[in-house]
Model the fold of this input.
Amino acid sequence: MTIYAISLRTIQKGHWIPRERRSRGQEPFNSRCLKMHSEMKKVYDEVIARDPNQPEFHQSVEEVLQSLGPVIDAHPDYLPAVKSVVEPERIIQFRVPWYDDEGNFHVNRGFRIQMNGAIGPYKGGLRFHPSVNQSILKFLAFEQVFKNSLTGLPLGGGKGGSDFNPKGRTESEVRRFCQSFMMELWRHIGANLDVPAGDIGVGRREVGFLFGMYRKLANEFTGVLTGKGLSYGGSLIRPEATGYGTVYFAREMLSTQNKSFEGAKVAVSGSGNVAQFAVEKVIDLGGKPVTLSDSSGFIHDSDGIDREKLAWVMDLKNVRRGRIKEYAEHFGCDYTETKPEPNLNGLWGTDVDIALPCATQNEINGEEAQMLVENGCIAVAEGANMPCTPEAVECFHENGLLFAPGKASNAGGVATSGLEMSQNSLRLNWTREEVDRRLEEIMVNIHRNAVDTASKYGMEGNYVAGANIAGFLKVAEAMEAQGHI
Ligand code: NDP
Done:
């Protein structure tokens, strides 16, 4: 195993300087708003004035509002919908008290953001991570509104979670925490009201503990959570769906340029749910995944991560709950330690054709994007939510890369959650092939919708604009029809 310090070689070449240098999502992006339609700029300024300390939320709102100028020119009657869509319908914040195994008392903060229910019950995951706060959950809930609309399913947008850190906690501590969390959340959710799922730190184990407590408190068995185990209403392919969907979307994007995954070297970040199944689908399509990461560092396996190695990673991460460094020790490849922001993540300096960021928000900044460009990367599809900063996206667009925003490319997870809800309502279980077929069809449709919408509004090839506009139009129409309440 080799342990590297992060190489800055591509930066030292120095022919790309970001327009504005800022730490990852720490400040409002006022200067970028110069490009914004004047009505959108007013909405954005109000968002910042109302909640000046929510940088991640500002970032996601800015990106959407920048796309909506042509829509407002064509449909001035949708302006009230723009003003409403940036304000959550409801924010629930609550105390989560629990005891650890030694009998020490802890209090965490729990949240549920019910962002927009115009087209269906609120739907979106729960995140357990120490960084969780209102800004991060509002950005995630906001993204979810447009993503859910894009799936074509009747799903509103929401998100929730807690600043609880599950890392290093025993199973009984996690169970106790989940039960305490649900003691409050249960009164705010329901199969026709708000249907949470997993996200960072919330996998099948946690969904099981949460569902059990909901069932006890509500005294009913309904599809109130998705991502459930197969023995109690879960759907086949739900664990795979976000990673598979991201790769299906990237495949569609590549095919517009007569390219494919066949023989392509692929950088994947993260090593959790989304990353694992993105790697699996890349292998299925003939590509060669060469990286994986966690919050401590990343591995670079130039021989490629094959099915056998992936099975080992799944056991490491899902059963033994170990660190990705152990992969390098076991298989004898390179490992690089990464320090928390704002250091550069050398993972994006590896020589790859395609990049799939699948860990967390703002994990590729402008400099890291430039590393990918200089190494000849041709396509980036976001498996995580907002993993690319605005400078990174700008760099990809300026250099002609295919770029898929998460609200389109990672929508397969929530789409399959929607399929889980349908199966629960019908009291049926579809086969693996049936769910995968529907997932693939949904991803192909989202891709087509994003392409067509971008073209219609004069932004051909811009998946960000296409996804934002297509997602917004359906929600805006529903909001207008319902009287903007
Ligand atoms: P997991 O918790 O299963 O995995 C997250 C991975 O990302 C882990 O490897 C984790 O490392 C790493 N990670 C998390 N935070 C950081 C950080 N701050 N810095 C570096 N690495 C980090 O989560 P998921 O795979 O479910 O989710 C990943 C992303 O995909 C998130 O952005 C999520 O919102 C998004 N997403 C997930 C969906 C789903 O169905 N699960 C659906 C749509 C989007 P470590 O273990 O060290 O923390």
